Amino acid sequence: MRVGVLTGGGDCPGLNAVIRAIVRKGVQEYGYDFTGFRDGWRGPLEGDTVRLDIPAVRGTLPRGGTILGSSRTNPLKVENGIRRIKDNLAKLDVQALVAIGGEDTLGVAARLSDEYGVPCVGVPKTIDNDLSATDYTFGFDTAVNIATEAIDRLHTTAESHMRVLVVEVMGRHAGWIALHSGLAGGANVILIPEQRFDVDQVCAWVTSRFRASYAPIVVVAEGAMPKDGDMVLKDGSLDSFGHVRLSGVGEWLAKEIESRTGKEARTTVLGHVQRGGTPSAFDRWLATRFGLHAIDCVRDGDFGTMVALRGTDIVRVPLAEATAKLKTVDPKLYAEIGVFFG
After folding, report:
1. Which residues contact 109 (CB under 8 A, 6 or more apart)?
2. Phi-psi region at 261: left, alpha or beta (left = phi > 0; alpha = psi -120 to 50)
3. Annotated catalytic residue within 11, 48, 104, 128
4. Which reaction does it catalyse (predicted)?
């Protein structure tokens, strides 16, 4: 049996660990052959492949990014995209496909499996941790650790100059990275997409912090919005899945704080550093287990499913269920940490 593997969407620490586990177990225990598709859904669309075998994945466990490359190609928006994918899979004798990605990549896999009969298995990947069917996605732990370390380092420079430091982290629709890193890093204000924020309240918390002779750290997710405003965009362009490019809420907020409080405010945008580089031990562990269970799904012919973490167990859930809604921060959880604001 020949199995195809692809990685789609933003790169993420742990992708190579998944690929490695799929290939190692698939070759050693099931005797499968593997074909890697380059650059997400562009690979099967264009028949762009790379051979995957045990030598190809050796030494990749601690490596960030993806050896297969990635893109945000949406085959559902390409003329004859589905037919081209099916024709290329048949031509390459690929009998099953493992798609590793977030809501967009897995949404395509769900439709291919449910509507077009393409045998797909999904593996959840996103640093945002916003897929509702799994307790955690790999990449999230690494992103939180990187953001927390940055916040730790920013405390000392903020206090040296007694200025406000606004830290912008990733999180388009869900504030999990901001929430976890902000709490772990001792931030004085945490702003997330799920709760519109009042700029005057933020300024009040900042002023309160200065009264205690400490310099405040404000952590804001890129998708956070003020009560009387809209999402801050880098530009008006959309990707093939209809997403706008986010960037700038941190800089906007720093200017508002400075003009309203008279205190100097600076911005640090962590950006892609959050999802680059070496994956954490937890992400290597989780990604490896996902890969092992994903190839078991292929062996069992259990297509149209995604592997997911529930507690400490890896379970299988329908792809359609996994991509039906996002997992966002519960208002009760956000309110729980409010005692640390200000």
Report:
1. 97, 99, 101, 120, 122, 319
2. alpha
3. 128
4. beta-D-fructose 6-phosphate + diphosphate = beta-D-fructose 1,6-bisphosphate + phosphate + H(+)
Spatial CA neighbour of 303 closest among 105, 115, 131, 97: 97
Known binding residues for substrate are 126-128, 163, 170-172, 222, 266, 272-275
Query: Is 128 part of the annotated catalytic residue set?
Result: yes
Domains and CATH numbers, the chain: 2-138+279-322 (3.40.50.450), 144-275 (3.40.50.460)
pLDDT grade for 242, boundaries at 50, 70 and 90 = low
Distance, in Å, from the CA atom of 99 to the CA atom of 324, rounded to the nearest integer, reads: 17
pLDDT at 244 over 60: no
What is the predicted pLDDT for the residue at 248?
86
Residues in the annotated binding site? 10, 103, 126-128, 163, 170-172, 222, 266, 272-275
The reported pLDDT for the residue numbered 230 is 67
